[in-house]
Amino acid sequence: MSPGRVVLVTGASSGIGRACAEAFLAGGDRVVAAARRTERLADLRARHGDAVLPLTLDVRDRAQVSAALTSLPAEWTPVDVLVNNAGLAAGRGPIHTDDPDDWDRMLDTNVRGLLNVSACVLPGMVERGAGHVINIGSNAGREVYPGGAVYCATKAAVERITRGMRMDVLGSGVRVSQVDPGMVETEFSLVRFAGEEAPARAVYEGMTPLAAEDVADVVTWIADRPPHVVVADVLVYPVDQAGSGRVARRGS
């Protein structure tokens, strides 16, 4: 493991992002924890002190992203590892009845947000000839399911962008990876169901989903490979899942 790296994690206030931040900190790295809800990062800072730099950041706002990342304190640069985690699913109806505002939220966060952050961090990595970008995708980027057309499209875009990014930096020494989780029990479903707890819990009933920490284990393992090794992409499911809609549920 390479101690003391600066790791930028977006969407670090909860779920996979929070778990990734904790995992990198446990390995001796320092974490720029970026999120819109920075008040939720207070305990992360309190627990880990100067190893955490909370950063208020809405990845959808290109000007805000640029201003925040170009004004990082000198001791928090350069960024060695970028984990593009910020993302969400919104809406669950068929595309002909969906709310277009939900489409915008997903496109702006899952696709444009990833591009906005990468555009600020990647040039420095290429110039230095070192660095690692790890994009968090989804198994939904590999297949489509009813009620998820736009979300699946945004995650398919992440996969295309990741592959193209890897080709664009070829020869620079920069590594580009992607992690595609299946069902992970976080606030993901709660957000998708607009805060309705009962249907959000029902998503995981009768099966054992992944935990955010399981995904973070994969992310840190990828980041800790030797510099000449690129783990290009990883698809990780709970044992009770074999695809979108392919879930083994046990009776209660």
Q: Give the overall average pLDDT.
A: 93
Query: What are the segments in which pLDDT stays under 50 over at least 5 consecutive residues?
Result: none
CATH architecture: 3-Layer(aba) Sandwich
Count, helices: 8
Radius of gyration (CA) equals 18 Å
Order of helices and strands: EHEHEHEHEHEHHHEEE
Quaternary organisation of the protein chains: single chain
Question: Biggest β-sheet, characterized?
Answer: 7 strands, parallel
Report the CATH C-level class. Alpha Beta
Helix proportion range: 25-40%
CATH superfamily: NAD(P)-binding Rossmann-like Domain
User: What strand order characterises the main sheet?
Assistant: 3-2-1-4-5-6-7
Structural class: alpha/beta
What CATH calls the topology is Rossmann fold
The overall number of domains is: 1
Task: Tell the overall outline.
Answer: globular
Distance from N terminus to C terminus (CA atoms, Å) equals 43 Å
Count of DSSP E strands? 9
Keywords: Oxidoreductase
Protein name: Ketoreductase domain-containing protein
Organism: Geodermatophilus siccatus
GO molecular function: oxidoreductase activity, acting on the CH-OH group of donors, NAD or NADP as acceptor
Task: Give short descriptive properties of this protein.
252 residues; alpha/beta; Rossmann fold; two-stranded antiparallel ribbon; Sc_DH/Rdtase_CS; oxidoreductase; oxidoreductase activity, acting on the CH-OH group of donors, NAD or NADP as acceptor
